[in-house]
């Protein structure tokens, strides 16, 4: 992530998303004080690996704090943003939430949706975090959320499927395109892009253009950095992948998978789809449905000169406390447990990526548990000249623009020029609207 990451994080720290109203003073439980008996709700999304580990962590919490009951609420990513948005709008959200990066903009624009965690220092220890990492959760100086891990998308491949045809993992974009022909004779694909996860197909096209031009798609302060021609070229690249049998068309994916996420698809589980683009913090759900050791990490794609810039990182997820919770100290204590408790760290492992907390990370290092695909992905991104994703790029409405353009090009209802014109206009207008 190199110097560009720290520079971007500092910019994010300074980013002013809105004017925050002052909050009334809160009573913070002293470090040696007792916590009140209460019930807390905790929500998160993820795959089965994350669910199972988190439920075990809650069991450990119950043994250590029997007077504080934590009720879990969890599910898959599809539709999760809409569910939590409805809860936030009705004031029925859980006390503690795993949140996405862009939710700081969409769910707490006035800084009241989530608690200012700096005010809960008596029960939440942040000494194991550097300020660059904490800056991702700050809005106008208020710590609305704590970064759990930093992550980026990487490429992961079914080693059995590749070995079966004697193919090597691609190093360059040209390698990737050439692989389509090798796999087509097996009626298989070297990789695919999950249409259920929101913006995955567009993400890869953005990396390709960022690497080629040096321009960022959307800047940290919400400015559109791509030209209309850049967007058209990104859509041309996506269509090139389809036309060369590198990925399935949208229609083929829909016909074969229905509404199932890619990791649940028989095509992926059976090896006909032999690669995925996924967050390092979430790749465990793909790994879990294949035989042990079959899924392997591949290199970040580069141009012919070996330049692999343009790949992106962000907080994979954050923990936030509801601004309406009746038990802020107890909620903060549970967040502290999730972030810093050594036994909890052992249970959670890397199901949410490589921990940003030094205490949790050290616990995993000492036990030899800091290994696997998440760590390999982090190591590759650390060595690359990465870009910090703008939270504006992650907004649900923005993803609808990307997916609409991808689908229109894939189905042939619009050429790339027309789709690019529409997408450029929609993105630009929405950015101007949301920043008012």
UniProtKB/TrEMBL annotation:
Entry keyword annotation includes Signal: yes
Record-linked InterPro entries: Bact_solute-bd_prot1, SBP
Signal peptide: 1-21
Keyword match Lipid metabolism: no
Gene3D superfamilies: Periplasmic binding protein-like II
Keyword annotations from UniProtKB, A to Z: Signal
Designated name of the protein: Oligogalacturonide transport system substrate-binding protein
Organism, scientific name: Ruminococcus flavefaciens
């Amino acid at each position: 992530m190199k110097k560009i990451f720290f520079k971007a994080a500092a910019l994010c720290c300074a980013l002013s998303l809105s004017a925050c109203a002052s909050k009334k003073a809160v009573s913070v439980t002293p470090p040696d004080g007792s916590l009140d008996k209460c019930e807390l709700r905790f929500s998160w999304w993820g795959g089965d690996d994350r669910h199972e580990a988190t439920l075990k962590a809650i069991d450990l919490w119950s043994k250590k704090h029997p007077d504080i009951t934590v009720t879990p609420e969890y599910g898959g990513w599809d539709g999760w943003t809409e569910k939590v948005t409805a809860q936030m709008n009705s004031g029925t959200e859980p006390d503690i939430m795993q949140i996405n990066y862009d939710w700081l903009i969409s769910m707490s624009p006035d800084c009241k949706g989530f608690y200012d965690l700096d005010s809960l220092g008596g029960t939440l220890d942040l000494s194991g975090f550097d300020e660059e990492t904490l800056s991702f959760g700050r809005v106008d100086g208020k710590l609305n959320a704590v970064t759990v891990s930093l992550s980026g998308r990487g490429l992961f491949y079914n080693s059995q499927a590749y070995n079966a045809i004697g193919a090597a993992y691609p190093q360059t974009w040209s390698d990737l395109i050439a692989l389509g022909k090798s796999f087509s004779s097996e009626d298989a694909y070297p990789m695919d892009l999950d249409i259920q996860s929101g913006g995955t197909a567009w993400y890869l096209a953005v990396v390709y253009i960022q690497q080629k031009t040096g321009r960022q798609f959307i800047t940290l302060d919400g400015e559109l950095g791509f030209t209309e021609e850049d967007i058209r070229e990104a859509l041309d690249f996506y269509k090139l992948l389809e036309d060369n049998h590198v990925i399935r068309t949208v229609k083929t994916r829909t016909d074969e998978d229905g509404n199932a996420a890619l990791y649940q698809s028989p095509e992926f589980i059976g090896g006909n789809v032999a690669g995925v683009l996924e967050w390092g913090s979430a790749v465990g759900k793909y790994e879990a449905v294949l035989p042990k050791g079959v899924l392997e990490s591949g290199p970040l794609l580069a141009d012919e000169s070996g330049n692999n810039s343009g790949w992106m990182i962000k907080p994979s997820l954050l923990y936030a406390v509801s601004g309406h919770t009746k038990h802020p100290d107890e909620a903060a204590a549970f967040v502290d447990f999730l972030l810093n408790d050594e036994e909890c760290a052992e249970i959670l492992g890397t199901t949410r990526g490589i921990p940003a907390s030094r205490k949790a990370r050290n616990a995993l290092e000492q036990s030899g548990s800091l290994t696997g695909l998440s760590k390999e992905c982090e190591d590759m991104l650390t060595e690359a000249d990465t870009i910090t994703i703008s939270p504006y790029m992650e907004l649900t409405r923005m993803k609808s623009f990307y997916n609409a353009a991808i689908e229109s090009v894939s189905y042939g209802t619009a050429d790339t020029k027309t789709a690019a014109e529409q997408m450029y206009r929609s993105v630009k207008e929405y950015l101007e609207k949301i920043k008012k």
